Amino acid sequence: MSDRKEFRDLATPEAAREAIDSLDLSPEPETVPLEEARGRVLAERVDAAVDVPGFDRASMDGYAVRAEDTFGADEADPAELDLAGAVHAGAAPQVTVAPGACAEISTGAVMPEGADAVVMVERTDEIGGGPDAGSDPDRIAIRTAVAPGDHVMSAGADIAAGARALGPGTRLTPREIGLLSALGVDEVPVEGRPRVGIVSTGDELVRPGEALDPSRGEIYDVNSTTIAAGVEEAGGEPVLYPHAGDDYEEMERLLRRAADECDLVLSSGSTSASAVDVIYRVIEERGELLLHGVAVKPGKPMLVGCLDRGGSEAASGGDADARTGESAYVGLPGYPVSALTIFRTFVAPAVREAAGRAEPATATVEGRMAVGERYGEGRTRLMPVGLLDLNDGDLPLVYPVDKGSGATTSLVEADGVVTVEPDTEYLDEGERVSVQLFSPDVRPPSLLGVGEDDPALNRLLDRLENPRYLPVGSREGLRRLRDGVPDAVVIAGPTDREVESIDLGGWTRDWGLVVPAGNPADVTGLDAVVDRDLRFVNRPTDSGLRRSLDDALDRLAAERSTSRAELTEGIAGYDLTVRAFESPARRVIAGDADVGVGLRETAKRLDCGFVSLGEQSVVVRAAPERADRDAVRELAAALDDPADLLEGLAGYSRNSRNDP
Amino acid sequence: MSDRKEFRDLATPEAAREAIDSLDLSPEPETVPLEEARGRVLAERVDAAVDVPGFDRASMDGYAVRAEDTFGADEADPAELDLAGAVHAGAAPQVTVAPGACAEISTGAVMPEGADAVVMVERTDEIGGGPDAGSDPDRIAIRTAVAPGDHVMSAGADIAAGARALGPGTRLTPREIGLLSALGVDEVPVEGRPRVGIVSTGDELVRPGEALDPSRGEIYDVNSTTIAAGVEEAGGEPVLYPHAGDDYEEMERLLRRAADECDLVLSSGSTSASAVDVIYRVIEERGELLLHGVAVKPGKPMLVGCLDRGGSEAASGGDADARTGESAYVGLPGYPVSALTIFRTFVAPAVREAAGRAEPATATVEGRMAVGERYGEGRTRLMPVGLLDLNDGDLPLVYPVDKGSGATTSLVEADGVVTVEPDTEYLDEGERVSVQLFSPDVRPPSLLGVGEDDPALNRLLDRLENPRYLPVGSREGLRRLRDGVPDAVVIAGPTDREVESIDLGGWTRDWGLVVPAGNPADVTGLDAVVDRDLRFVNRPTDSGLRRSLDDALDRLAAERSTSRAELTEGIAGYDLTVRAFESPARRVIAGDADVGVGLRETAKRLDCGFVSLGEQSVVVRAAPERADRDAVRELAAALDDPADLLEGLAGYSRNSRNDP
């Protein structure tokens, strides 16, 4: 076992924040075309270079007049003026308004010389001419008096040349784009987007889309893409570097290249001590390590430092793009939820700051703890939590999600993190907490369901607006419903837990034994599994499939006047449980087992053989106090006509509860 | 005057919404690479195609063991196992763990055959070997018992093949990108972005960046870029079509081309009746008009309909991209604030819906009316309002912004609109209202200032975080401060209004007469303006510059034993007032005036001549009840050392208040 660096003297989270703040990630400002400026941040003040409007402008359709010619005019005694001509928008006036005259004018047109007000067309009449006379009118009756400037927008009245239009730091949304357009600006000085290089280390990582060899322990690289998306969201420009693999010279070369090309370099995914050693060495040789280890869970192995530039071939080769000085460096933990949590908490604010962006208002949500939570490790905890907004006027419910840091599914089963201070030992049920969302765009679910996994259920969930479903099995689902967090539970087969709940409907599914295509071992029923030397694969005890299997074994044991335990002892693989409804079938297909517990539907879909052991009801039940929620009603409505939910699913039928 | 279509039988806003909802803007779903998927919306469910992890995986560094070999082991009585080899992450195990043996294993590595649990390294000791022995250890002492599965993540335990990973309609944020990566997905089925064609009509419109001829009444096209940015923000893909100008055949051709190429066509900016006639004709010939005129202010002249496809040359020419069926059509009002308001209220929700996106949580903000507002026109009003969050625990203040619909500056002086129902005649001060922001990214200001405009003030504002400043003049500024909405006022010169306020600091500026470079008319003082036949240009009565000018005229009148009115009667242009501090100078430069009131700084910057008439103080004052706000303290702090505020500004100095 190689030597491992120990993390002693952990820094406080505040010190980590200060260390990152002390690094300079700021890119140079740049100029972008107006049509690409949305979402960017103004780097400097923009003053109006022109008057808007650029001329005295009619703001109504009507007649341009000298106001004094209308003084005293009213409905009873209109002023009559000679019609001297017309002015239209987008054309230079070809007419001058002399005393006693007027000119037809359209909204937006230039006020003709001599005129100082507009009378709206509704307060005028044509005299002479017109369709009947077969000619244009030559005089206009003005039935109202106007003052100089009436219905005229004078040049610069909207914004005048020299006036401050937009200040530095302004985020450019459609309306600012509009004002810049009005000023004729088509190139905008904006804050640069910090370039953030992402170097991932670890021999086992494979880029999504490439072939994976699980027998070599390969997994897809989650952190690079997740963090790249986070960088982009914070206003940075992510640059993914190719995998360094376990070639440490290559890793060093990559780190230096990334430092030369970027404002900030992030590495993550290194579970290998030797990779960490390389990073140390590079930083120690050409850079500075500011911080090593932070008293925060997760994220203890975080590194903060900087890397001198000029170390890469690109730079020494005279690449014009190469920068000087130093690049900031942060090493993130390897597990995806930890990496995203540390990125969101410590790195994203620095990227946003460098890009000139404010923290989005939606990035933090207030909530109340749905359950109590004990903690006492003496360091700050960034606790992953899920949110459920009951829309009952109270704060959303917050519940801890703890699947172990290695689970990528925590990414979508949690919505963000709650910071638990080191001296907090217990969070009470109902206590108010702030949740830092994983992204300002995270939309917490409107419905939380738990329980059995099932293919018809997957379709049902597709019909709902933003549900979250945790496939924890029927038994665990009932336990969670009883504990009060979820809205609904899905139960397959018989249950022994009594939890008060309201039946919303369901269906029936054919379950039994999945065998290879053609049933080569000629399995005919449970006897074969018990009596013959077949490799079996099971579901966990929380699963309804397992419960039905055990009930069937109980019946067989009773027939044979023995116990279930006696029977199962002889089943090779009875204790080998796999995660989801298709998993046993897939083990059978892979040749790792001869028989698995499963569904007729799965066997058909995956082209396996199937031996039915019976039908099992799947029911959806709601927590009584949640039955009136819109989201639960929507669930009930989606269940009301389950026909096409079940269409084409082998062995599925409406259960008796739903039949008329 | 041409015939104008009258808007009779206006539709209700609900009917307008229904008409737009009845149109089909939905594009086909598409597939995008994972790295471009952020912000998009899943078009269909994604099930896991592989187990994650794809193998039984060590979740700690330590030793892979057969759990039963550790039963009974503890600190006092460790189990000793033969070390059979090592397994590292990213490598296939080359070792089998037989009874009584173990294998070194790294986090993330594949569990070797035979082993079913991991003992963490901290609970083990090496026996024999090591640095001292000069060889590898051959046995390991295990100081704890483990159960099967301990520190092992079994294949599929995170998510199993066949399980539902993400549902349709899921917005892809970094965490979803992470889960998709874990599943090896590199191409993602997402909802398409509706293509929205923007056709702008109006002879007077010029694209930003092009040359403008104000004498022809040309203005920059604000709506096309504003609406394009709004479309993009709502998840659509904007397509700007070239200006049709007043060539109506061209306009018809463009509308048809846009219909062929887009899911929705928007037109705006048409203040010309004949342009509206062309749109009618095109819709009537090849399409359907659903709605014409809506009882809403602004936005009455809104049109909703659809345009048959296949009318453009591109389509008849067999363009592969041409679509069939029909395109939706909405005609927006011409004024920028009206166009953005109608877009935001009626069109953006439809674009979002077609793109599969939810309304962002930040798009609506609750507030309380800062002042009462009367309204009684019997139709829905979408009232532009500004927001000011006092951060006092109460809702943000909401105040109406009504500069007239033609003003583009309303775009940035208002933050959104409040919907006032037709039967609401009065909104009380303090009444709670919902503000629909112009964009979810709109950040209401943290400070609201009003008053005089001034170049040093512009610099001061640049130092503040997100201020809003309304240059309404000193006198109007004081009136507004008294009415209780703004935080601070900036006053230049003497004032006659008494408003309780707190002095925060200020400076002094040299003011006088701006004349052409070289002072060709040899103006030496105010006498020249009064006595000679010079064309003058003034500032409005609310301006501090005007007030100082009038005071100087009063003094001159007293010297001459006459009245100011008597003197000003002889000044050609005394009543010609222009908007901003630079505006008179710019009129002088343009040759439209011989003398203007203004600042030495402006004269110097614009290379004009200048005749000083005196010094004028500029003071910044806060509303007493706002003095403790963070934003006001920030303002006071920025004023505390005004030295470099004034650096390089001609005629500027610290005023006596600030001198020690």
TrEMBL record, chains A, B:
GO biological process, one term: Mo-molybdopterin cofactor biosynthetic process
Domain of life according to the entry: Archaea
Keywords: Molybdenum cofactor biosynthesis
Pfam families listed in its UniProt record: MoCF_biosynth, MoeA_C, MoeA_N, PBP_like
Residues covered by region (Disordered): 1-32
Pathway: Cofactor biosynthesis; molybdopterin biosynthesis
Record-annotated MoaB/Mog domain positions: 197-353
InterPro entries assigned to the protein according to its UniProt record, in alphabetical order: MoaB/Mog-like_dom_sf (IPR036425), MoaB/Mog_dom (IPR001453), MoCF_biosynth_CS (IPR008284), MoeA-like (IPR038987), MoeA_C_domain_IV (IPR005111), MoeA_C_domain_IV_sf (IPR036688), MoeA_linker/N (IPR005110), MoeA_linker/N_sf (IPR036135)
Bias (Basic and acidic residues): 1-20
Protein name listed in UniProt: Molybdopterin biosynthesis protein
Organism, scientific name: Halorubrum yunnanense
